[in-house]
Design brief:
This protein is 42% helix and 12% strand. With 110 residues, the chain is α+β, with helices and mostly antiparallel strands. It starts with 7 loop residues before the first strand and ends with a helix.
Length: 110
């Protein structure tokens, strides 16, 4: 994401999802960054011989205040351990409800 001037602070994930904490450049939109990330990572995986990988169509993007960066970094570092007790789907639903983000189950998962 360097060429978009959106440096990643941390990237981490588990088998069914990934978290990326990055600084979003004021000249970029979230949708452009996500399109670039998905396209370039899919191409790279194909060069590694992984031909069956595909991203889901959607994504979640959330802003983080500077004062919360350290806790988000810690959260991302502990994903594997965290997802032993709460599935990604459960966690995502709770997150959306906690921050009052309206959603329709039919369109969240694909």
């Amino acid at each position: 994401m360097q060429d978009l001037q959106c440096p990643a602070l941390i990237v981490g994930g588990v088998a069914d999802h990934v978290h990326i904490l990055c600084q979003l450049a004021k000249t970029q939109s979230v949708s452009v960054v996500m399109e670039h990330l998905k396209t370039s990572s899919s191409k790279w995986l194909k060069t590694q011989g992984i031909r069956t990988f595909s991203w889901q169509r959607g994504y979640g993007a959330f802003s983080v205040s500077q004062s919360n960066v350290a806790s988000v970094v810690s959260y991302i570092e502990k994903q594997e351990e965290h997802n032993r007790t709460v599935t990604f789907e459960e966690e995502f639903r709770l997150f959306l409800k906690r921050y009052r983000v309206a959603f329709d189950e039919r369109y969240v998962w694909d």
